[in-house]
Amino acid sequence: MFRLTSGRAGAGVSRSSALLAGSFVVVSLALSFLVGNSLALAGAWTLQKGAGQVIGTLVFSQSPGDLTGGLYGDTKTEFTLFTEYGMTRDLTLIAVPGFRRASVGASTSSGPGYFDFGARYQVFSKGAAVASVQGIARIPGASDPNVSANLGHTNAEYDLRGLLGYGFKLGENEAFVDIQAGYRYRTAGPADEVRADLSVGYRLRPDLLLIGQSFNTVSVGEAQGGFRRVREHKLQVSAVYDINARLSVQAGSYASVYGENALRERAVFSAVWVRF
């Protein structure tokens, strides 16, 4: 996700390399986005001390059922407010409140979604390459597991991951790649998950960034309480337009392309980015 206002270069790096590293845009879902991808929340880069950004994202998704023709269909609208703040040049704090409205058949649930909070710590930086670790706790807003639309959204989750980012030139334009691998511990029934996410960005113009992403989830261990082991692979594309140095807008779409016991999800989303 998008213009990194902070990128930090290592000691002894040339001014041009430092400027290149500092201009890269990184992504998170997560998506997860917070969105269902909660994604990758953010990329490997950390913010400068005292810098911050707030990203409001609105997602609309539909699914006629799962990728193997079973399960149930659903419709979901979700709004998340991704906020991060640079406590130091190495440590960025993260908070993501959300609101969701989901319908599964005749069952509908509206109210707070997951509240994600945690931190990302940069452990390595050299030139335009960075490596970080990130920990996120996810507190559910929904509380009644007997409501079908709340299924899988009433349990706390804990996500720990490693992140690698690299910025480079592709022709005359800037580009970046961000790779994340993590483990998500899920409580109250669902199986734990291994997650692997890939983001690639290309700045088509100085004010326009194109992003392609892959989000991958595989259950590990045994699911309990009626839950099933899940395998899910999503692809996402989006574009981010910089209105000025502090404000950007984004639009995109994602889809589930393969999986087991996973919804055949199709979604569109838009976002507004404010940096301070």
TrEMBL record:
Protein name in UniProt: MetA-pathway of phenol degradation
Protein species of origin: Afifella marina DSM 2698
